[in-house]
Amino acid sequence: MRNVVCGLVLFGAGCQEEVPGVAEPAPVVQPAPPPPVAAKRAAPAEVSAVGQPVADLEVSDWLTTETTADAGETTLVVFWEKWCPHCRREVPRLQEVHEKYGPEGLNLVALTRLTRNVPRADAAEFLETSGVTYPAAVGGTGLANRLGIRGIPAAVAIQDGTVVWQGHPARITDALLDEWTHRD
pLDDT digits over 73-86, tens only? Predict the structure, then answer.
């Protein structure tokens, strides 16, 4: 004699005949809902260096000629590292800026930090083979941290001991340079 198995299904009762040696049909499984979409993490708030005082470049070792934070009407400080492809493009490009605006009172300085993979000799060689003659040094890490510099390359323009501009070196225009050197 066949047994009849009855069960309660989600929307009502249903019966099914039990047949010996025949497996019960697999239950219908609904796909799991997708996991909740994680909220995108908000980018950290941009810290503006504009208005911050700068008295010292915090240099530990000069790679080219020496300078100070107040050597010109405006000091343009560029933070860079040799391993960074954007830095490898921008640091040599700034040589033209130095040649054109240095005589007008622009003091340009590039600050880098050394790592196990990029020792002093490698940084100095990069500057030399790139034709960089403007002041460049090892240091400025504490300065970059205080100014909220989060990525490289980055630049700040300093006038009268205060940051007046912050941004990517590629965004430095002739109009900004003319303004900083009071060129008409």
Answer: 899 999 999 999 99
Q: Which of 34-43, 57-66, 81-90, 164-173 has the lowest mean pLDDT?
A: 34-43
Q: Are strands 106-112 and 74-80 parallel, antiparallel or unpaired?
A: parallel
Of 31-35, 83-87, 111-115, 139-143, which gets the smallest average pLDDT? 31-35
Percent of the chain at pLDDT above 70?
Answer: 73
The CA–CA distances, whole Å, from 148 to 50, 83, 110, 136 equal 10, 21, 17, 21
Q: How many CA atoms lie within 13 A of 112 on its CB side?
A: 26
Task: Please state, in angstroms and rounded to a whole number, the distance separating the CA atoms of residues 69 and 54.
Answer: 7
Helices (H), the chain: 85-101, 120-129, 141-147, 174-180
Rounded to the nearest 10°, the torsion over CA 49, 54, 56, 58 is -10
What angle do helix axes 120-129 and 85-101 make, rounded to 10 degrees? Answer: 50
